[in-house]
Amino acid sequence: MRLAFWIPVLAASGALLLAPPLSSPPASAVQAAGSEAAKHPAPHGTAPATGVKGAASETAALEIKRQQLAAREASLAIKEQELKNLAATLDARVKELEAAKASLDQSLDARKKVQKTEYQKMLKVYKALKPDEAVKLLDKMDEEQALELLNEMDQKRVAKLLPLIKPERALKWTRQNMAAK
């Protein structure tokens, strides 16, 4: 059976054991029993009536403690199972995230490859253009992009383009290459 069923049962039985009796003997009956015990002493080897009550109360107290411990143990077992379930859920989520990351990495690598291929095509186009046509386009480009294209071109092609480029860009390109040494 499931532990969830037993927890309320154990809690209810523990509460019943801890509850005071619904009715108690009248005080006169308790006094009469006490006076009877005084008139007729117990035979040797038997415990007096109060000793039996003390042992019974100790047994009841031990039983209550045992039930409380059993209830705690059941509660801890349930919590342990919940933690195991949460750990399994987290492990599954981590695996999902790792798979998603791998997919994104693959997608990013594919995109970089495509961009590199497109960049190489564009570089070939610029190399194929006449120097004055290439310079017109380079002068209209962003400075960083134009300088990057110049860095990718071979030395002979740059030697033809450099005199035609704006002097500021040519100087900046030269300084960048000198600083790279």
Automatic annotation (TrEMBL):
<feature type="region of interest" description="Disordered">
    <location>
        <begin position="28"/>
        <end position="54"/>
    </location>
</feature>
<keyword id="KW-0175">Coiled coil</keyword>
<dbReference type="InterPro" id="IPR006668">
    <property type="entry name" value="Mg_transptr_MgtE_intracell_dom"/>
</dbReference>
<dbReference type="Pfam" id="PF03448">
    <property type="entry name" value="MgtE_N"/>
</dbReference>
<keyword id="KW-0732">Signal</keyword>
<feature type="coiled-coil region">
    <location>
        <begin position="80"/>
        <end position="107"/>
    </location>
</feature>
<protein>
    <recommendedName>
        <fullName>Magnesium transporter MgtE intracellular domain-containing protein</fullName>
    </recommendedName>
</protein>
<feature type="signal peptide">
    <location>
        <begin position="1"/>
        <end position="29"/>
    </location>
</feature>
<feature type="domain" description="Magnesium transporter MgtE intracellular">
    <location>
        <begin position="119"/>
        <end position="170"/>
    </location>
</feature>
